[in-house]
Queue: 4 jobs
Job 1
Amino acid sequence: MKKEFLRWLATFGLIGFFPFAPGTAASIVTVAIVWLISLLAGPIGGWSLIAAALGLFFLGVPAARAMEAELGRKDPRPVVIDEVVGQLIALAFCL
């Protein structure tokens, strides 16, 4: 995968570089996206969110590893894809 795409994915569209609480910002954006999709497309099933979480998990692991290698530390602050996956799993059980 291209380095730019991996950076974009690991930081959830560069939200991970938000200066204040990037994990919280990514979580809020995830909730807003799920809410907007449910408004526009109708109810989203919990299984759809689980499927999205699984897809992002399997794409996010190599992306997070690439960012760790690039930044030279474990669990760098800009990597927020794990917060996104966690929010999707939590929201799946709320529907």
Job 2
Amino acid sequence: MKPTKRTMEFEQVKTDDFLAGSIEEVQYDQEHTFGKGGKFEKVAPATRLKFKLDGYSFPHYSRWLTFSYHEKSVLLNKYLIPLVEGAKADFDFEMDLLTGMRIKTLWVEKNGYQNIETIRPEKNKLLSETQF
């Protein structure tokens, strides 16, 4: 006898329009393993955002990002600059302030995975010194 094959089902999101929602949680992994094609690359602190999208049952996530605010980081350029007023390389910012922020997201599908292409605040950018 063989066990039944496991199937993973994911809730797909619309990819042709902005979806409203909120940042439900900021998650951290101090020793995340980043790799490419199954090949080990590096272990480094990482972060990702957990989203609650309006009209969807399950949470959706950004990919794991190197936890760094350097000038070429994806975290800074793709997420913080669009969401936080005055965001710039190596600025002093507490990521947990993003929790609860209302956002609009645009998703793309590539190689069977859905990822965020664009993220914007629903109304105003977050002031880096205060909570919205």
Job 3
Amino acid sequence: MNQSTDFDLLDPHANGVYFVGREDAEPIATGSVMASLHLTRIDLAGVADKAGLLRCMAAALRFPAYFGHNWDALEDCLSDLSWLPPGGYVLLFEHVDALQNAAGEDFDILLDILAEVTAEAAVGGLPWHVFFVLSDEAFERINDAAAS
């Protein structure tokens, strides 16, 4: 996972999962729209488990009715967003602290799935970026963990 957002959103080589501070959310959203990428904001306020996470993602991304509400189904849907406009995707997760604190293992699985999906898209030349907006405290924990 990365912590810098200094790149061209249209460059598939920059695809990945990024942690950003609250002050970065609006510039990322604006940049995504200006780059004609499909932006989906996912508000995880109050979400503290896998079931809630998958419900929020399914609703925000308008997953098809056949979505199975499990990790494999999530990866399948994220790898084929054919019901959304083509051209590239940006997910902007907000209020992630409760999920990260209460369901750390599920949060890590989500990160792995998103990293795989964005890497696959890069091979195909499709811009696909994920941003987790973190509180200052959570951002410091990530920095501390990366340093050790």
Job 4
Amino acid sequence: MQSKCANGSLPACSSSMDVIERAFLFALYAHKGQTRKGDDTPYIAHPVMVAFKLQGHDFSDAVIAAALVHDVVEDCNVAIEEIERALGREVFDIVQTVTHKSGLPWEERKMAYARSVRNGSIEAKAVSLADKIHNMESLKALYEREGKGTWSYFNRGKEKRLWFEELMLSIFKETWEHPMIDEYETLVSWMRTAD
């Protein structure tokens, strides 16, 4: 299960570092001690895998940097303004688009996220989609180990999780064309048939 992220101020990063290196150090510090649902994998593995996926599709350094820090605002004690100060406006804009809004009931929070991504830039869609793909890959691996027990890790269970994945898939298909969408669709199809 997830543990709390590092508290306190984030380390200062040298301005001579490129934005990807600064983002990696930012994420490494923010996610310190945090693990993924269902196992003891350090949480930092997730944003790194999202970033690798985007790098493999030749996205810009700003997109890769945003992938590295995409969860620090909603999952850690990090203010969105810290992203802009450390990594610049472009990374800030992407992360702001893909951050779930706190303080809303689950369904409303998911709908607000979906609207934000639908209206967001291609860069934000790319980070969201790569995030969804890696989350689904991780979910599938967990399911292969634990079967039906996998759904107990999610407050709303399989049905609501599938509803959200299908909603996001429809948004990506309606608003963008990219090979990653086919990859995501395959994973959503798997989820439909998993018991």
